[in-house]
């Protein structure tokens, strides 16, 4: 990022996207290896997951299935789902740690290599994991509320109550469009903060909330666009590759599946880059300068390098 800290606050969403896309050019080998080892497995697992679960679900829904076999298949399905979630969670945090660390290293002119990024991941992962636990707690509360209003929809349909149906349906729509998108934006920014600042967990969530002020609309548009693109990719993959056996040949399904995995890899990489750049945009908007020397030392601390005594990588607010 060649822009000054003062200029970052004026970036529009297209500007943020262009700035993010240009970052891998500064260290193509590092980003190629990060993409190949972390982002590709994550993207492939997201799409290929339905290829394995669809046959099992089809067999479980068969009324003529043997009860003993059904019990076994349920066990297999639950074990597979558990392993999938662990894999998804692990690679999601690993990819986030790798991209955020690499972008910050380039920002501070710190030497960048895939080996240095991999060496830093263990300590970064721990911080991201604690932040993720706090986000999970918040999502549990959100899901309880969401399920509660889904039950209201069922009650409204059973009792044929149009007012209750409209009310609960509107709340569900707003919960996803506003609350879910906002929590996702909060989580993504908190993840960057957990890597780049000496805070994590609830403190990182609180700081993320403060940084989003004034940039909430930008964050919401970016997150919603990302979720929408992923939704379209998943929908097309499901329609053609998973359920399209009767309409499309094996070759077409393989080509389309490979193409969609490639697109999702690019979307995920760009999403992580945008996530990193957006942090600097928010810092600039709130006139919170970033001491590059302190950030350089902070990143070096992940690698076991000598870290001078500093109270924070964040300079005093310029408004004070």
Automatic annotation (TrEMBL):
PANTHER family in the record: OS01G0800300 PROTEIN, OS08G0107100 PROTEIN-RELATED
Organism listed in the record: Rhamnella rubrinervis
Designated name of the protein: Polyadenylate-binding protein 1-B-binding protein
Signal peptide coordinates: none
Keyword entries, A-Z: Membrane, Transmembrane, Transmembrane helix
Upper lineage: Eukaryota, Viridiplantae, Streptophyta, Embryophyta, Tracheophyta
Keyword Nuclease: no
Listed transmembrane segments: 31-54, 74-107, 128-157, 163-196, 217-242, 254-282
């Amino acid at each position: 990022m060649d822009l000054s800290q003062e200029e970052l606050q004026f970036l529009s969403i297209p500007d943020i996207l262009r700035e993010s896309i240009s970052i891998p050019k500064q260290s193509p080998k590092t980003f190629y290896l990060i993409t190949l080892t972390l982002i590709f497995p994550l993207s492939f697992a997201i799409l290929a997951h339905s290829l394995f679960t669809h046959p099992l679900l089809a067999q479980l829904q068969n009324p003529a299935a043997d009860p003993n076999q059904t019990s076994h298949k349920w066990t297999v399905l639950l074990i597979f789902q558990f392993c999938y979630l662990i894999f998804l969670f692990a690679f999601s945090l690993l990819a986030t740690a790798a991209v955020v660390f690499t972008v910050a290293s380039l920002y501070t002119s710190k030497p960048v290599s895939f080996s240095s990024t991999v060496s830093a991941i263990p300590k970064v992962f721990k911080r991201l994991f604690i932040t993720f636990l706090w986000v999970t707690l918040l999502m549990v509360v959100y899901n309880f509320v969401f399920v509660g209003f889904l039950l209201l929809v069922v009650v409204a349909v059973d009792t044929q109550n149009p007012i209750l149906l409209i009310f609960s349906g509107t709340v569900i729509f707003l919960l996803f469009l506003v609350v879910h998108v906002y929590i996702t934006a909060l989580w993504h920014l908190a993840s960057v903060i957990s890597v780049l600042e000496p805070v994590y967990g609830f403190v990182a969530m609180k700081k993320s909330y403060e940084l989003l002020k004034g940039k909430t609309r930008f964050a919401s548009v970016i997150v919603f666009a990302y979720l929408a693109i992923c939704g379209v990719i998943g929908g097309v993959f499901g329609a053609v590759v998973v359920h399209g056996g009767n309409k499309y040949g094996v070759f077409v399904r393989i080509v389309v599946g490979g193409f969609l995995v490639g697109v999702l890899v690019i979307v995920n990489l760009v999403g992580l880059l945008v996530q990193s750049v957006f942090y600097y945009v928010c810092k600039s908007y709130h006139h919170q300068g970033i001491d590059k020397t302190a950030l350089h030392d902070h990143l070096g601390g992940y690698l076991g390098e000598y870290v001078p005594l500093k109270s924070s990588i964040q300079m005093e607010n310029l408004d004070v």
